[in-house]
Every structure is written in C-alpha cells, then in structure tokens.
Amino acid sequence: MNSILTTLIDILSEPAILVALIALIGLVAQRKNLSDTMKGTTKTFVGFLVIAAGAGILETSLEPFGAMFQEAFNVSGVVPNNEAIVALALNEYGSNTALIMFFGMIVNILIARFTRFKYIFLTGHHTLYMACMLAVIMAVAGFDSVGLIAAGSVALGIIMTLSPAILQPFMRELTGNDKVALGHFSAVGYALSALVGKAVKGKNSTSTEKIDFPKGLGFLRDSTVSIALTMVVMYMIVALAAGPAYIEAELSDDTNFLVFSLVQAGNFAAGVFIILAGVRLVLAEIVPAFKGISTKLVPNAKPALDVPIVFTYAPNAVLIGFFSSFIGGLFSMAVMAIVGSTIILPGVVPHFFTGAAAGVFGNATGGIKGAVSGSFVNGVIISFLPVFLLPVLGELGFANTTFSDADFGVGGIFFGSLANYGGPIAIVISLIVILALMVIPFRGKKSA
Amino acid sequence: MKILAVCGSGLGTSFMVEMNINQAFEELGVTGVEVSHSDLSSAAPGDADVYFLAKDIAESGEHLGEIVVLDNIIDMDELREKVRKLAEDKDLI
Q1: Residue A28 sits at the chain B interface (C-beta within 8 Å)
Q2: pLDDT tens string for chain A (448 positions)?
Q3: How many folded domains does chain B comprise?
Q4: From B16, which residue of chain A is nearest by alpha-carbon distance?
Q5: Do the beta carbons of residue B39 and residue B10 sit within 8 Å?
Q6: Is A42 exposed, middle or buried (0-12, 13-18, 19+ CB in 10 A)?
Q7: Partner-chain residue, chosen from A279, A309, A312, that has the shortest CB–CB distance to B11
Q8: How far apart are CA B6 and CA B45, in angstroms?
Q9: DSSP characters over A380-420
Q10: Helix (H) or strand (E) holding A446
Q11: Which of A285, A380, A382, B13 could form a Cys-Cys staple with A328, CB 3.0–4.6 A?
Q12: Do B82 and B70 contact (CB within 8 A), yes or no?
C-alpha cells in the first residue's frame, strides 16, 4: 500500500507526467478519439521535457554572462526574458506550476461565469509563465502543498481576469467594440501608456498613422533573430568590458574571448528557441480544451487574446513604440548604473512586444505624442519593476534573467511584499478581499 | 492538405488563428485538413501547402510559398471568407 502511495507521489511530482495527465483529462473530457488522445498526451509529455532541455542550454549561456558582468561592472546584470526564467524555474517548481495553471484556468472560468468580469484569458504561454511565477512566489512566501496550489490558482485566476479588465476601456476605444479583450500580462504598462497619452494629448496631436514611416524592421518580429542580435551586442559589450584575461582564464578555457562570447550569445537564442518549441507542444492540447470548455460554460465571454491583435490597428505606432520603449530601457539602465542597483538590461523582445502595444494604446489616446511618451513610460516601468521583483523570487532572483512584462512585476511585487509583511495569511486575506470585491458589485446590479 | 498559421513568436496569435481555421473548415464541413502553428524562424517552405500570416509579417513570409494574408487577425468573417475561397480553389467543397 505504501509503495503504491510513493509511486503515486512520484508520478505527481514529475511535472512532465503531470501536464500529460492534465492534457489527457482535457482530451477525454472533450471526447476526442483514441488517436487524438494518444497524440495530444504524448506531445504534452515530450514538450515539457523539451523545455527542460532548452533550460540546460540557456544556463550554459547565462552563467558566463553573469560572471563577466559581475567582473566588469561589480554589480549583477539581468536580462529579463520570460522563456528563460520559466524554463529555469520549472526544474524545481514544475509540478506546482502545472497544477496552478490547471486550477487557475478553472478559477478564471468560475470568475467569468459568476461575476461581471467576463474575460477568458486565452494566451496560454502567458498563463503558463504566470503560473510558474506564482508557484515560486507562493513557495518563497511560506506556502506548501495544497495551500500553495490553492493560493496560486486563485491568484492566477484573478490576474487572468483583472489584467484584461483594467485595459478594456482603452481596448474599446481602440477597436471600437467590446467583443475582444487583450490577454497579455503587461496590461499595467499599456493602461499607463494610454493614460499618459491622454495627459500629453495637445490640440495638434496627429495620429502616428498619418505620417510616412519606413518599414523594413519586420525582421525584429522574428524572435530568434531579435534575441540573437541583441544578445550578441550585449555579450560583446560586456566581454570587452570584462577583458580577455579574465574570460580566457576563468570561463572560455583559452578560446578567444570574443569568439566565446559570440557563441554563448547564440546559445541563449538557441535555448529560447528550444524552450518555445517545448511550450508550443505543451500548450497544443491545453489551450483548445480551455477555449472549448469556457465557451460552453460562459456563453457571453470576452476572449482575451495575444498582443499582436492590436498591432494591426496602428503599424507605425508599433515601431515608434518599440523604439521609444527601448530608449526608456536604456535611460533606466543609466539611472540604475548611477544609483548602483542591479542593472536590468533592455531586452529587445519585451521592449518590442510591450513597447509596440504601449505605442498603439498611447497613439489611440494621444496621437504621436501619446505613442512616444506612453511607450517611453512603459520602457521605464518594465525596467524598474524587475529590480523590485528579484528580491521576492528567492533563489531565482539570482538567475541573471527574470520575468519581463509589467503584470509579472506588479503581481509578483504585490504578493511578495504582502508575504514579507504578514506571511501567507496576508496573501490569503488579500485574495479573499479581491474576490469579494469582484463579486459584490455584480450582486448589487442584479438586485437593482 | 496541410496549413500552417505563422506569427512572430509562434505561441499565441498563430495558435488562435489555427483554432479559428479549424473552426472555419468545420463550419464548411470540410475534413482532413491538418492545421498547425509555428513561429517565423521555424516555418520553412515545404512544411505546409498553404501558410496563413497576418498582414504585418506577410513580407517576412513571402518565401514560404502559397500564403494567405489576414488583414485583421481577429476578424472571424474575413477568415471564414478566405478559408472558403481556399477550400473552393483546392476543390474541397
């Protein structure tokens, strides 16, 4: 009997098997045929192991980068990248992540069903990343076993609902209807950008789309290309600053320091490429199941979709937003260097995707001025939030990479600091209060 | 027939388009079409017979072969129209 129990625990603590089981449940619930069920379950299982393999490659690239940065500047340098930090975190927090994701989606459906917040968060990779961050934060906060899963899932469900909700007024302004929402965990940055746009809007603020703007930066949308190129630039600068003597003696095993750095920069992109392939396999069954179940249970749901849905509304603002956000990142980096804190390096991927969307929202409320200043503010925010997020991530705060988008920072810092002040109980109380606040206005409306 | 939906990171948008394409074919009663999704780097000519891309990355995907460009990736009506046309071209309906 005991051995059956330990085997069961072994199964459940192996995240790859756990997510495969979740996929299996989803597929059976949808009454898929045997071949589809087998295929989906196996892909999910393998996908999780692919993520772990990518994490290994990434680590070989990040460790020398961290060492070089420390040697050169005497502070730690962090490259925010969701895929990187999640892959590293899944080694230890994989099972909890999988369970929080599964139950968090259920909480999302329940909130959408029973409150006035009708948002179903369909951007699966962000759900996975947020589940992962919450697994880490709840563990650092002092939760364990069932309590950890429960707190993490409720927190995830709430974030999945509130993130699209705070942005919806601006989404309505942008799209002209109330049918779709934006499901991207940087909503705080976008909403701020829209507010900044409103504030700076002068009498003569023309839309970004009225100007002729050179195209041809489309290659930045290709994440492998943009990650590789920025990592090469960053690695080269840091390698030159650290100097050949240190690198060739301590890290590269006598290989020329620039050659070594070039290859390691490529390794970073290779690691992310593999992780993305794994994430795709893991989500392939889970997201359609979530979508199918939620449409059945929440008839008038608003799907919250991935960020490129807003890009087509203002292609010029996308480019302006990226540049302006990136400049905000460089500006923040200079401030951090002066202050002497951990330095957050501006990664092209977060600045591209969140900066671009911030540009679109800033443009919608404040024209060119709004796009430029709104996305600059976004760039500053996504640079400084990680500085305060790192301390609440425990061991993972020292990983040389971290979560990049604004809502991860806001959510993580919120729950992390609650735990610092009042431990797990403070988090439990805050979750209950938030849920109560979400439910009450709905009842009031109904009785009226 | 094989269809590949492509977007910048191959995670969210292309996945959504994939699910919508599946739904559109289902509505037409067409079966046997295999739809999957991918990022721009991984997508290669020969991976599929037809590629679906959003307007803003269409230029980067011209080398892929037969492409269908979506002006508005959340417009289900546009997608239905383009899937129907594709199905007619390929003699599936």
Answers
A1: no
A2: 678 888 888 887 888 998 899 889 888 888 888 988 999 999 999 999 999 899 889 888 988 998 999 899 888 899 999 999 999 999 899 999 999 999 999 999 999 999 999 999 999 999 999 999 999 999 999 998 899 999 999 999 999 999 999 999 999 988 888 888 999 999 999 999 999 999 998 777 788 877 766 666 666 667 788 888 888 999 999 999 999 999 999 998 889 999 999 999 999 999 999 998 899 888 888 888 888 888 889 988 899 999 888 887 888 898 899 999 999 999 999 999 999 889 999 888 889 889 999 999 999 999 999 999 999 999 999 999 999 999 999 999 888 899 999 999 999 999 999 999 999 999 999 999 999 999 886 544 443 3
A3: 1
A4: A305
A5: yes
A6: middle
A7: A279
A8: 12
A9: HHHHHHHHHHGGGGGGGGGSSEE--SHHHHHHHHHHHHHHH
A10: helix A406-447
A11: A380
A12: yes
Starting at the edge strand that comes first in sequence, how are the strands of the sheet with A302-305 ordered? A119-121, A302-305, A181-182
Q: Number of folded domains in chain A? A: 1
- DSSP-derived 3-state class of residue B28: helix
Chain A residues with CB under 8 Å of B75 CB are none
Domain extent at residue B45? 2-89
Size of interface A-B (CB pairs under 8 A): 85
Does residue A324 sit at the B interface (CB-CB below 8 Å)? no
For residue B65, give the CATH number of its domain.
3.40.50.2300
Min CA distance, B14 vs chain A (Å)? 9
Report how far residue B36's alpha carbon sits from residue B29's, in angstroms, rounded to the nearest whole number: 19
Mutation site for B-interface testing, chosen from A276, A307, A318 by largest number of B Cβ within 10 Å: A276
ipTM of the complex model: 0.77
User: DSSP string of A14-58?
Assistant: -HHHHHHHHHHHHHHHTT--HHHHHHHHHHHHHHHHHHHHHHHHH
- Contact of A224 with chain B, judged by CB distance below 8 Å, is answered with yes
Are A188 and A410 a contacting pair, CB within 8 Å? yes
Please tell me if residue A315 touches chain B, with a CB cutoff of 8 Å. yes
Helix (H) or strand (E) segment spanning residue B38: strand B34-39
Q: Structure tokens of B8? A: 């910048």
| CB burial of residue A5 (10 Å; 0-12, 13-18, 19+) | exposed
Report residue A55 as tokens.
Answer: 């994490």
Q: Which residues does chain B have within 8 Å of residue A315's beta carbon, measured at their own beta carbons?
A: 56
Query: Beta strand B50-54 with A343-344: parallel, antiparallel or unpaired?
Result: unpaired
Contact A279, A91 (CB under 8 A): no
Range of the domain at A369: 2-447
Which pTM value belongs to this model?
A: 0.87
Structure tokens at B14: 């292309």
Phi, psi of A344, deg, nearest 5: -95, 115
β-pair partners for A305: A182
Sheet of B34-39, strands arranged across:
B34-39, B2-7, B50-54, B67-70
Task: Tell me the DSSP string of A240-301.
Answer: HHH-HHHHHHHTSTTS-HHHHHHHHHHHHHHHHHHHHHHHHHHHHHHHHHHHHHHHHH-TTP
